[in-house]
Amino acid sequence: MSTPSDLSRAEWVKSSHSNGEGGGCVEWAPAHLTSGTVPVRDSKDPHGPAIRFGTAAWSSFVAVVKGGELPA
To answer: For residue range 32-57, what is the model confidence (pLDDT) as tens digits?
Structure first.
């Protein structure tokens, strides 16, 4: 089990798939990839919780999104 890292100083990047109309705003903290997890949060709630994905799971998810394999 890994110890969660402090995200208070994380630099968040908005997903290129987020829309500019106030919905679907997902951010991730790429600098935390070295910890073995990828923190993801809702940009509309920056003080809310972040979900942490394992790097392999995150890579698989990104590949599916880029490949257009998710149902609309």
So the answer is: 777 788 999 998 888 889 999 998 99
